[in-house]
């Protein structure tokens, strides 16, 4: 246990700062995104069967395309990269960079590989931090082990990550600390991205590989919603055909962008159209739930809170917004929101409504 102390100190320090940040967490208003092109430098990542196509190069290309898409459509969102060229970046440093920069989202981009080559399309899978996958009967934990093995490329890694063995899944328990609120946001982001990738050039076979949880070290140091994307498989000739071209990588980045936008739209936080000044007075409410379909009257939350009001946003995926309270100024709404977070709705946040429509909560 003594060997775990250095790692625990680092983790608890991050967790403590994260807990302080979470006190003011009011939904995913995104102003800064960190994109992490996995691997780099002396660590090539996965390799094609002929060893000519390197994962690190694909990751960097897709990351830059994604960043360019975000910059073009959302100039108010700052995009940062953990690397912009072929250099090695330590796993802990990638996540810590996002935390130090007070980023709102962290997206780590990777390419998968398996022991057996195949000619069939395999497709994407998306990961968030959490869960002990070591006892699963499928091969999902192999992905975690493979990505965490990057630690071995770092100088003096045994001292730096003392107590953590990338080959031993049980040692990952020291990283299982993240708060529920951020975890829920990560799952929503991961689901949006996975669903979008499944509609793109790397949609894979009929069975969706899905959004999964695993103990990735690169995500363990993030104090914001964070996902790790495995875009496809280099040992699949069908996937590799797309991953090997710049046009294919650009199209994958576009699908990542769609998933990113679906995440934003699910909360009505970014890209909301301005309203006319002659409309009725803005009212502030606290959003407690959102859903794709209208909830039945028998829903437990609606029954427990009969004063719940509904705002419908037809242009959004999660178009049914359920709210509590009705205030003429944001300060009162925020105070009410803070009370709700302490009890039934830890993810509650303030929204603004004008003429029955969602508007920016400025």
- The CATH superfamily of the largest domain is Zn-dependent exopeptidases
CATH architecture assignment name of the largest domain: 3-Layer(aba) Sandwich
What's the story with the biggest beta sheet? 6 strands, mixed
Number of domains: 2
CATH topology-level name of the largest domain: Aminopeptidase
Roughly what fraction of the amino acids lie in strands? Answer: 15-25%
User: What is the helix tally?
Assistant: 11
CATH class category name of the largest domain: Alpha Beta
Overall number of strands? 11
Helix content: 25-40%
Overall morphology: elongated
Write down the oligomeric state.
Answer: single chain
List the uncertain runs: 1-27, 132-138, 169-178, 269-279
Report on this model:
There is one protein chain. The protein has 362 residues and is α/β, with parallel strands linked by helices. The chain has two domains: 2-265, Aminopeptidase; 283-359, 2-Layer Sandwich (Alpha-Beta Plaits), CATH 3.30.70. Helices cover 35% and strands 18% of the residues. The chain has helices at residues 5-22, 55-73, 91-100, 140-148, 157-160, 180-197, 217-220, 237-243, 246-265, 300-304, 330-341, and strands at 32-37, 78-81, 105-112, 125-129, 211-214, 226-233, 283-291, 309-312, 320-327, 349-354, 357-359. It has a six-stranded mixed sheet with strand order 2-1-3-6-4-5, with helices on both faces. Helix 2 links the parallel strand 1 (32-37) and strand 2.
């Amino acid at each position: 246990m003594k060997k775990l102390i250095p790692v625990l100190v680092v983790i608890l320090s991050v967790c403590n700062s994260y807990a302080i940040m979470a006190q003011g967490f009011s939904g995913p208003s995104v102003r800064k995104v960190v994109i992490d092109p996995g691997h780099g430098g002396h660590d090539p990542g996965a390799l094609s069967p002929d060893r000519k196509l390197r994962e690190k190069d694909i990751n960097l290309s897709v990351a830059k395309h994604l960043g360019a898409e975000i910059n073009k459509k959302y100039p108010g969102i700052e995009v940062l990269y953990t690397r912009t060229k072929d250099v090695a970046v330590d796993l802990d440093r990638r996540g810590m960079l996002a935390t130090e920069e007070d980023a709102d989202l962290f997206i780590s981009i990777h390419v998968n590989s398996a022991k057996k080559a195949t000619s069939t399309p395999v497709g994407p899978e998306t990961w968030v931090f959490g869960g002990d996958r070591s006892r699963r009967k499928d091969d999902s934990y192999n992905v975690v082990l493979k990505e965490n093995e990057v630690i071995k490329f770092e100088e003096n890694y045994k001292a730096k990550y003392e107590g953590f063995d990338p080959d031993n899944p049980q040692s990952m328990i020291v990283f299982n600390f993240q708060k529920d609120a951020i975890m829920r946001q990560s799952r929503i982001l991961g689901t949006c991205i996975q669903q979008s990738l499944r509609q793109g050039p790397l949609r894979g076979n009929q069975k969706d590989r899905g959004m999964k949880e695993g103990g990735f070290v690169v995500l363990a140091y993030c104090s914001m919603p964070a996902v790790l994307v495995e875009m496809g498989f280099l040992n699949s000739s069908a996937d590799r055909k797309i991953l090997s071209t710049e046009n294919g990588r650009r199209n994958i980045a576009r699908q990542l962008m769609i998933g990113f936008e679906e995440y934003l739209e699910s909360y009505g936080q970014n890209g909301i159209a301005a309203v006319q000044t002659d409309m009725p007075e803005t009212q502030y409410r606290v959003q407690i739930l959102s859903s794709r379909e209208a909830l039945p009257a028998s829903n437990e939350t609606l029954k427990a809170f009969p004063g719940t009001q509904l705002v419908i946003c037809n242009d959004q995926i999660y178009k049914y917004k359920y709210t509590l309270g009705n205030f003429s100024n944001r300060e009162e709404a925020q105070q009410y929101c803070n009370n709700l977070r302490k009890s039934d709705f830890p993810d509650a946040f303030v929204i603004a409504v004008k003429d029955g429509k969602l508007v920016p909560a400025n």
